[in-house]
Design brief:
The chain is mainly α. Helices cover about 65% and strands about 0% of the residues. It has helices at about 5-15, 20-30, 35-50, 55-75, 90-110, 120-135, 145-170.
Length: about 180
């Protein structure tokens, strides 16, 4: 998926960016017992008060759903976060990671799978707490330096793996379809 292309389409119709909505998808997927394209579109309409969905926006939502579902079905630990490319400024990438985490937490919180957060295994609670801290990242403090670049790489990899692990244990198991 191309972050810049999807993000520009979303900005025309919504205030949220591509990273936030991708995180929202992953949070909803992990947090709900049944999950499909219709549930995703229904959640978008309800949560973001979308009165009409232009064809390109619908295509982008479907692409986010299809690619994310496919990645989870293949291997939850190999998902790719929808973030700006590495040639974009680090502040923009840090902001997008923060937005992904906010969207993820928002979607996870709307789900019905977790009835009592305190009953989750310790590592789940730690992953969610860490994602919460990353969602509060102040991208204005990010500098274009090798240290900050390395920290960003580590954080984005951590988020990717945490989301993958949570999906592996909580999300409904997708059954591959045989064609």
């Amino acid at each position: 998926m191309d972050y810049a292309q999807i993000d520009s389409t979303l900005k025309v119709s919504l205030r949220e960016d591509a990273a936030f909505l991708h995180g929202f998808w992953h949070g909803l997927n992990a947090g709900n017992e049944s999950w499909d394209l219709k549930a995703w579109l229904d959640a978008l309409v309800k949560e973001f008060d979308i009165s009409s969905m232009p064809a390109q926006l619908l295509k982008d939502f479907q692409r986010i759903h299809d690619v994310s579902s496919e990645q989870l079905a293949e291997d939850p630990l190999s998902i790719t976060l929808l973030l700006p490319s590495d040639d974009e400024p680090l502040k923009l990438r840090a902001y997008a990671l923060q937005q992904f985490c906010q969207g993820y937490l928002y979607g996870l919180g709307l789900g019905n799978r977790i009835q009592n957060w305190k009953t989750l295994p310790k590592e789940f609670r730690e992953w969610i707490e860490d994602i919460t801290h990353i969602s509060q990242l102040d991208e204005s403090s990010v500098q274009e330096s090798n240290n900050d670049e390395s920290d960003f790489t580590d954080l984005s990899e951590y988020v990717r793996l945490a989301v993958g692990h949570i999906a592996e244990h909580l999300a409904p198991q997708a059954k591959p379809t045989v064609h």
